[in-house]
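Give me the fold.
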Amino acid sequence: MFKSMRVIILLFVAGLVITTTAGITYFAQRELTNSAYQSEYDTAQALIDSTLLNVSNEYQSLLFFEKASIERRKKELQDIVDIAYGSILLNYKRYKEGHISEREAKDLSLELLKNIRYDNGVGYIWVNDTRKPVPKMIMHPTRPELDGKIMDSPSFNLLKKGEKNLLVAIRELAEKDGSGYIEYLWPKPTADGLTENQHKLSYVQLFKEWGWILGSGVYMDDLEEDIRKRFDAILHELQTSFAQIRIGESGYIFIFTGKQELIVHPTYVGNTTSTLRNPQTGRLIGDELIESVNTTGVHEYLWDKPPNHTGDFRFKKRTYVKHFAPLDWYICSSIYVDELEQPGKALRNKTILFSLGVLAIALAFAAILSRIIAYPLLKLTEASQAIGKDGLPATQIPVSGPTETRRLGYVIKQMLESIRNGMEELSASNTQLEKEVNDHAIAKVELLKLRNHLNSIIDSMPSILVGIDNVGRINLWNASATKATGLAADQARGQMLKFLFPELTNEIDSATKVIKTGKTDVIARVPRKINGQTHYENITVYPLTSEGQEGAVIRIDDITDSVRIEEMMIQTEKMMSIGGLAAGMAHEINNPLGGILQGAQNIERRLSPKLKKNVEIADKYNLSLESINAYMQERKIFTMLRGIRDAAERSAKIIANMLNFSRKTDAHRTSCKLDKLVEGAISLAKQDYDLKKTYDFKQIDIKTNYTPNLPHVICVQTEVEQVLLNLLGNAAQAMSSIENPENPPQITINVKQENEFIVTEVCDNGPGIDKETRKRVFEPFFTTKPEGVGTGLGLSVSYFIITQNHGGNFTVESTPGKGAKFIFKLPINI
């Protein structure tokens, strides 16, 4: 009976349906209830996460609002102080133009600033000076008793951070940065007068011309009030939106704070959880919920069910809790347990009824199915036996019944056809194998080409590239490395780097560290001697892992030119500072020189018998001006006075030349005569001397030859003066290197006209310049001076000024041992 497939199928289907029905009846309620629990848990968790994200977003919005409010008020303070600064600057310009006195300009500015008020009178502007050690308050509109007072009392140590005098801190900030923000404590003006000290943020700016510091500020409690209103609006929005959310039929979201104040709840909002206790344990329900955050995050207890069962604490409730630390909020999502179990009970009853119906239908279909499956299998069995016995052609194999039996028929047909096609497929397979062998050979050639291309790229790089393995053995050596060492790549590979390139001993240690850590190491500005000259290099060590082999690549870049440019910029900054200092000193020296000149002139006038007042005073004391003058002539006092006046006038002329040379040109071209420029440059040069006392222009004979009535040229005077000073300095330094008493140092300057150019020649009787040096004398950074003495930029900058800035040309003529002649030509202004 059980050997028939049809019977087996019927029994199997009946047993499967009966077993499934029993299993569903036994396990359905529990599994479905657990599924409902899990589903609601996932829903509650998702809702809490969504709520937490919403609260987090609102909190971030509040932080952004706070930051934006502070930045906006900072910008307002800066704008207000800028307006005040502009008002003072306007009065200062009127004073400098001579329309008003300086006292009037200051009084007008202080009166204007005193009347500036904003923010309902809370905002104002004050002014203090920059005196040391403690500044003085110049004007304060809300505390006029401080006007003119030096703020050195300990009561003004009001900085928000640290015990320090407030005005000293403001002065240091303004002198360092010119302007900036500062926080401190200060009384706030109100309708009832000044309050106690409050937190304040102010912006200050230095008005350097008068040594004033302007300041204005905002009180932080005003900003905090705006932030509090923003927080209340966010809380109201959360209360409104969360009160409408329901989980299941009666579940809801509620939020309470770490102080157990309920801020979101459908029935208890505004209360504290300190009045709400768990009816089962008697403990505060808030304490239990907070404890659950640190364990499972889930808490079950008995509670009422609003709105129909408010106050009836008999309903089992499950609550999911998460803590939002920035606000110390506890966000809770709750659902009643009976609502979770109800769907499982209803589904259980429906499942039992449905399973009984399925059993009856399954048995009917099983009978039909067994007939459909069994009959085609019997036909295939008979056909297969006939093939083995009589060799039945493949076309007579029956293909019918379900998909599986049809597939079995197709398989038998295909098996017979495959035997006939076997040899053909084997031949085709051999052909394909030959094609793959050919493709492999082509791929090998392409791979070799790619390898050669990568080697060409590496060799074309200007940087030195050296690859090593984890023991320091060379496996990569590019053309730049060959050029630097003279060793070909084939000679270097496999050798130890420390023997071939001992200069990289430190980098080998660095490479070992890089291989271990996997982090790139950069060593900047490493000095190295090449052909007697110091070069600077950046050395970078990269980690490298290839086919399981650890190693590193060392890259060396020559940055000598960049280092020299940086040094040139630093030197230029120093010279600019020295120029500014010289100009300031010149201005300061002019004042006493003026007093000396005026005093000497007044002494001569007071001794002159031609002035009636002198005669009257002499008679008053019974003195004779003639006798006094005779005495002073005899003692050569008048000669001394003239010497004082001549020396002062010479000093004033020197200072005037220094001022003219130190002023910024702003590339302003003007019409001038070169002979006058030469005289000014010589005057400046005579004040110069080498710090090591190797030369002194006062000991050099300087001769000039000017063609009369030379035409004007258009040029930037200070730039041409720079060229002349450079040539004079180079000549003096060159002549100082030789000592020849029979041929003392001499510089000759010729200025003449040739066609449409004015030609200037600067000649010296120094050691001269050889042919190779003449070819490179105008190259940037080329110098014959010892290291640390010259930058090699003087003549290259001069060449640029003449040829590029003025459209002229610059040449040099020299014979070793017979001096040098530098010639530059400038076009005539016609």
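The radius of gyration is 51 Å.
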